[in-house]
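Before relying on records like the one below, remember that each one covers exactly one chain. Contacts with other chains, cofactors or solvent are not represented anywhere in the record.
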Amino acid sequence: MLELAILGFLYDTPLHGYELRKRITALTGHVRPVAESTLYPAIKRLEKAGLLARETMPGAVAAPRHVLSLTEGGRTELLRRLAEPVQGEITDENRWFTLLAFLRHLRDGDAQTAVLRRRLAFLEEPASFFYDGERPLRAEDLDDPFRRGILTIARATSEAELTWLRATIRSLGSDR
């Protein structure tokens, strides 16, 4: 998720590490705060893989800043990751939102639709956080108001996302 966010934000414009961290935190920070101890090793890995370039620029008021940008390989890798997301990026809501934040960079409508269809198929499968043996429990099945709340909120969120997914797939012209 972190590497995808780094590549996605740098696709638009070169950024220095502090600005990149602010943007990633704004996208994912409420769920997974981005610490320097995780961001900078990820940047180093991407740099070592040839996906990022670093240029030293004079600082406005302080020390020089290292501005990061995507290499051509980085752009290619971002587009590959967007077109071929791993299953966890489809099924995990936080990872899904990170993927969704950058899916516009994938210019091919059919490829975008394919990703959306994978999420749609996942959401259409019956699921629950709670089970009675193999049977998924619905909110109505529970006496516990807190667990009932979890399922009620999850169902409403899923229904809203399903509506959005179906409409977006139609608007992309891939209604088949």
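Residues 51 and 74 are 4 Å apart (CA to CA).
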